[in-house]
Amino acid sequence: MIDFELDSGQRQIKEMAHWFAESELRPRALDSDRAARTSDELLVKIHEMGLGGGEVPREYGGEGEGAGGGKDKSGVSRANRTQVVAVEEMAWGDPSILTTFPGPGLGGPPVKMTGTAEQKGRFFSIFKRGDPPRWGAYALTEAGAGSDVANIETTCRENGDCWILNGRKIFVTNGARASWVVVFATLDKSLGRAGHRAFVVEKGTPGFRVGRIEHKLGLRASETAELILEECRVPKDNLLGGPDHYAKSDKGGFTTAMKTFDSTRPLVAAMATGIAQAALDYTRAFARDAFMLSRPIPRYASIRDALVEMERKIEAARLLCWHAAWMADASQPNSKEASMCKMYAARVGQQVTSWGVQLMGGFGVLHERHIEKLFRDIKVFDIFEGTGQIQRLIIARRLMPDIRIS
Amino acid sequence: MARQSTADLGRRQRPSARGPPVLTWCVMSGTMRVPVNVETLAPGRWEPRMPISFDPSDEHKLMRDEVGRFALEKIRPKARECETAGALDEGLRSEIVGLGIPVLDYPEQVGGAGMDFIARAIVEEELAFGDAGVAFATDHPGPAGYAILELGSDAQRERWLKPFAGDARRKAALAWQEDDLGAELGALTTRAERDGSGYVIQGAKRFVPFSREADLFVVLARMGDAEGLAGVRAFVVPAGTEGIWGQPPGYRLGLRTVPSGDIGLLGVRVPGDHILDGPGDADGHVRGLERLFARMRVVTAARQVGVARAACEHSSNYAQTREAFGQKIGQFQAISFMIAQDATVTNAARWMAWRAARAFDKGDPAELVRLSSLALITANRAAVRTTIDSVQVMGGMGFMEDDLPEKWMRDARTLANVLGADEVQRAVAGRGVEALA
To answer: Around Cβ B354, how many Cβ atoms within 10 Å?
Structure first.
């Protein structure tokens, strides 16, 4: 039965997220952008409210799927659908601060999906509410391996009771503050994807250090770090999934990375949708206040048309996110839909924020109006978690599997 | 006079020694019958007065090459530094002023080089190709100077424009924008009244470049009861005149090399000869204001073309060097098509800017407003699109402050707003000559 209503539990979560976004995130958005950090006081508050970034399964002391989890009236899980709704509201508040939320973050899905029970226990246990805020992270990208994930050069070799890792990872969100980082390395580059292994490298491991922290166009409150591994000795127990995981499948490491994207892409798309919605709201409010002249001017019609077009695109983006999330809840493979919503929402976000700056004229470029910050924040959404170009490739290949699309 | 389209130009200007043209009917494609002047079909009889040509004069080429080289070698390396400092490197400005660039299209009587407006369009593109912020920040007397040129008497021009020639420290600002965004000059609230032998000005202006550094302001204010442009007058207000004060410049998304802030005018008194009164009648005055804004649009469009070209070049070079999946990323259609599209709209924008500049030089008032508005819209879009793409082509690296694409993206978006939103430009273009009000 087709429906687009939220159930009462989801509505409550949406309202709570919106309230938090408006009362806690919005007032701090500009300062966080200027200072390029989130205040400790807010991070503690977020952690204590259990709003952490990334899911910590209940059996390891976390919220699990939280109030948004469980099953809907037809008996199907609703966790993914609830998450896209909640994440959109949070990003509407401030996307930059959202990426700094304590929790396992992007490191969560690989640990949850491929970690042994012992590893899950060990790595998820550090996010308990009573403890100080902590972070997990995910290190895959390198200077020579962005879209071309298979090309990573960080190496790993067995050495007695540990593994030795060498390499440099870049653009790691929360990489400097993370208590542990999921790091992808290769046994031998010539093996391609079959040679990939995922490790959990803990902060303080000898040979593991933070390099530079990036200065970025947008998402400036987010910590983006370079991580350097020099003869880094990682305990054998930190090979994610243990040796068995790789014995089972030829491309265990690579598959871990890719499966993660199927669950994170709709959330990233939901963030982009939230940014776009915020941009539209600011622009609408501005148009209402600024064009209050006593006589009509011809350009009002084109402004109204612009606002309508922005709204239409955002609605479409939102529905694509919901579709991908609904499929995930129903345990249907959703790679194509995840890529569709990610590609589309990022594009809409760019269009809407740029248009918002344009419509606000000289005011649109001022910091206090928020809109130019959203214009800067949204750009990376067409780049990380797979560029828009890669998403189109994935979609095309799924649509036309009988030909070789490059 | 009905609007000319490009296609009409040659036909209308054709000399006709044989009396009025004879119309005939021509059957086309079986369905449409179109009236065609038979003389256009006869070979050898059609001589357009202005043949289509994209070939700059030798003088233009010289300027383009020299300024282009200067932009790449001297301006580009300092772009980031100037932005961080929020100010133009004074050595750079001295060199640019030494080349005579800021006054190149001013009459020789006031120290200019007497070049045409197309020369200005060509040079602004090259400067902005180096850096848009530097191009903007070097431009003195800039729009204020254009206002004096278009609206001032010969005596006023000489008095206020001459000091700028060759002076690398003097600055000027045109204060025209208010809360009502865009070129809706009919709705200005800053007012001027006669006060004895002089005038008193009261109001507030927004987004004034060099609000705290200008030596001289030209302020647009309403005076009297005439509607629209006819009711707008321009006043020269030297910095330090009592009652004029500039707010400290604030943060902007881009063009940070150009400090910009609001100014207040509280009972500002200026002598009687500070009202720009070159044109003898109301009509001439309106034409002058139209020319002023047309100039600003074309200059902005030309700068956007420069920014767009820098972005295209960067994307193209990067795509031919960066490798992924065993080949150069430019070999992927997703990337190559993006770059092809960007180069195309950049070219279109340049031709639109040149077309508007040419109409300006020919003194064609009917076309000036329309063409300059359309050129600005085209160039703004091209610059915003190509600079966003230049970040995208670089992937994650493009999002970092290490390289210039992210700066170009911010500059293009900011520059696209200095004359108001595109929606305003479209409304202006749509209305034609009659009203900017």
So the answer is: 22
